[in-house]
Amino acid sequence: MVRFRAPRGTLLWVNKPEDLDLELLDGTLHLKKSGGSFWSLLGSLPFLIIGFAVIGGSFIYTAYEAYSQFANDSVCDTRYYEEVELGGGDIYCEDTQWNQINSIDSVEVADQHFKYVTNWGDGNYEVQEFRWSVKNEMLAIGLVESYEGERYYQCSLYKMESSLSQNWTADELTVSGDYWYALPSWCRDGDTSSSNLSYSPAVEPLFGGELLYVVVDAGSHDLHAEKYTENTLEYITIYAPYNPGIIELMFPLIFGLIFGGIFLAVGDNRGMVLTLNGSEQTMRTRKAFGGTRLSGWTWTGIDFSSLKLKQYTKTVKHSSGGGEDGPIQTWTTRHKGIEVIVLDGRKPVEVLFLEHGDQLSMYDSTIERICESLGVEVPEMVRLIEERPAPDISHEKVRLTHFPVREWDSNNDARVLVSWFNNESSRTNNYSLQDALETSGIQRLDSTEDAQHLLDHLVDLLKKEATDVEADELSGHDGIESNETTAEHDGDGQAQASNPFWNDS
């Protein structure tokens, strides 16, 4: 995605210190989040495949069309059309691939009338009856139609190929004036002439099998014709030559780039890299692995001595559902953390948000490294939240009411429970909030019931730890007793150390 203005909001949101990679290269500090998970990459893979396929296909199609246009000497695209020369030498293009041919059975004729049975296939037949006349070299053919019990003619004007001048052009197939009044009078009258006709089988194609060019109003550039054979009626379309411009030729490519780019943007799993250069007073954000100016932004004239630290609770609104996924659900989460801010002139830029929950000092070393790399002193922290210590109470007696939480409605509240668990636990590594939620079967903490379920899960873990410790202690104690008993049975007042087997000799 191409950016036309500086990004808004926090440039880099970090959930724990180990998720942030800091690297100082040639005086430039590089900040980025650790690589994404395998599942996020797997989820983005279909979008990437579709995006590359759309873009690649549009390039191939556009190149093929461009080559066909420039390599073709004809005014018609000979892949789809055949050249047709009019009497005056004008070249038109006949679409032979899409000409419509209807099958005709049992053609019958009478005095200026004819009728035939059209075979539509699948056993569907239709009897159609016509009247025709010629006046001023203009052929009028009217199909007998019926409406509310009344019969009338639906007429069209034609010119037979033999009636056209030697150097005829498309202008001869147009009507000057009103098309309706160019029709013969019987076209405007009701059908009264076909009631007492005597039909006989036709012995040759209607109208001698000539091309019948449709006469149209002025302004039409394409030609339409009909041709009768002994058993078919063919509809022919002849187009005026058209040479597409460069924009029209590039339209498939533009379409592919736009829509393919959308799929690539959705499937782009690359993280953002933030570079801070104190000597050049620049700050850049780019996509990792091939990111350019098009995927990020550059700030110049940044005075990193203006760096500020603000510790507060950030509120984030979420929504899901809608349409086929059911009603829209909204919820709000609160996240405790430290916001690292620099000034772009007088405008603050939110560089980092270091989420820490109730462990307020977990980013102390990270902030010191950032300030040291930029050559600035660690500024004074603006503290807008106070630490909520976990209660000093054993897991046998702990209750939700022991924790300083007014309303259990966010994952931030769950951090208090996890922090208490880590204080009580004998684990070497702290239990993360994500692990606690996943193992307890809670996607996010939204209610007191969720909090109680999580607390019960943590208490069970502590009980299991206590049981394991007692078992280990009992096992060690039994081993000592066993050695002492063996020694007494051997008649020794105290346990005797046995010699190694290589000293038995």
Main sheet? 8 strands, antiparallel, barrel
Oligomeric state: single chain
What is the end-to-end distance? 83 Å
- Count of discrete structural domains: 4
Q: Please indicate the percent range of residues in DSSP E strands (runs of 2 or more).
A: 25-35%
Task: Provide the fold topology.
Blueprint: E1 12-14, E2 20-25, E3 28-33, H1 38-71, E4 82-85, E5 91-94, E6 100-110, E7 113-121, E8 124-135, E9 138-147, E10 150-160, E11 174-175, H2 179-182, E12 200-201, E13 211-214, E14 216-217, E15 223-228, E16 232-239, H3 246-267, E17 272-277, E18 282-287, E19 297-300, E20 303-320, E21 329-344, E22 347-355, H4 364-374, E23 381-383, H5 411-424, H6 433-440, H7 448-489
Parallel strand pairs: 1-22, 11-14, 20-23
Antiparallel strand pairs: 2-3, 3-17, 4-5, 5-16, 6-7, 6-12, 6-16, 7-8, 8-9, 9-10, 10-13, 13-15, 15-16, 17-18, 18-19, 20-21, 21-22
Helix pairs in contact: 1-3, 5-7, 6-7
Please give a structural write-up:
- The protein contains seven helices and 23 strands.
- The chain is α+β, with helices and mostly antiparallel strands.
- The protein folds into four domains: 12-34 and 270-383, no CATH class; 42-75 and 243-268; 82-239, no CATH class; 400-486, no CATH class.
- The strands form four sheets. The protein has an eight-stranded antiparallel β-barrel with strand order 6-7-8-9-10-13-15-16.
- A hairpin with a 4-residue loop joins strand 17 (272-277) and strand 18 (282-287).
